[in-house]
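HUMAN: You are asked to prepare a plain-text protein record giving the amino acid sequence and the backbone structure tokens, both parts labelled.

ASSISTANT:
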Amino acid sequence: MLKIENLEKSFQNNGNAIKVFESFNLKISRGEFIGIFGPNGCGKTTLLNLISGLDKNFLGKINFGNKVKISYIFQNYRESIFPWLTIADNITYPLKLQGISREKQKEEAKIICNQFGIKFDLSDYPYTLSGGQQQLVAILRGLITKPDILLFDEPLSSLDYQTTLFMLNKIQEIWQETKTTVLFISHDIDEAIMLSQKIILLSNKPARVIKTFDNNLNYPRKTDIMGTSEFIRLKHDVLSVFTDEVAI
């Protein structure tokens, strides 16, 4: 589905080139749910920007198996929500860009909200919602086109604890139904283990893949799985390598 070969990416800082990636390689198979974990500033968000095509200034190759639809769920939902559009119009904005009829857009907004068990007044505007609810709107908008690849950049970091638990369950459900290829960045190792089939641990920049951890916990994963010996063992293994090789 996705193959990255010899990726090189640098930023300029006061005339000095800061290397984010150098000879970086990664291969993701179709339908995998991949968690990406690493130190702050190592290039996790930059990696998603490159994959999505938001940033095209790089060397190397980013290849897809065929033509794919990509959706990107940003961490800062306040900059991705349109305050002048209704909740329904925010969710279905990608469908509008595709030329889908207004009637069909309204229908799809209702369908996806029902699928997630989310009760919005779709005629309201985003300012009537809490921060967590606004992020839910952004997540629904990313799912509305049924993408082949779904990129999550710490999408749960602004949600309250109850909503986070709800979304952990719902993200699992939609992935199990669609087998969409998912790359999920998180600073919370518990989130990454709850959701991911594999956890890719990145080093400080220039980032490299230190280790890929297989996560064989059975789906669906409920919160009580966090207390199991398998969960605790995997968390210990990831954090041990993180501490030894990348933590400052």
User: Anything to note?
Assistant: DSSP finds eight helices and nine strands in the chain. The radius of gyration is 19 Å. Residues 9 and 52 are 15 Å apart (CA to CA).
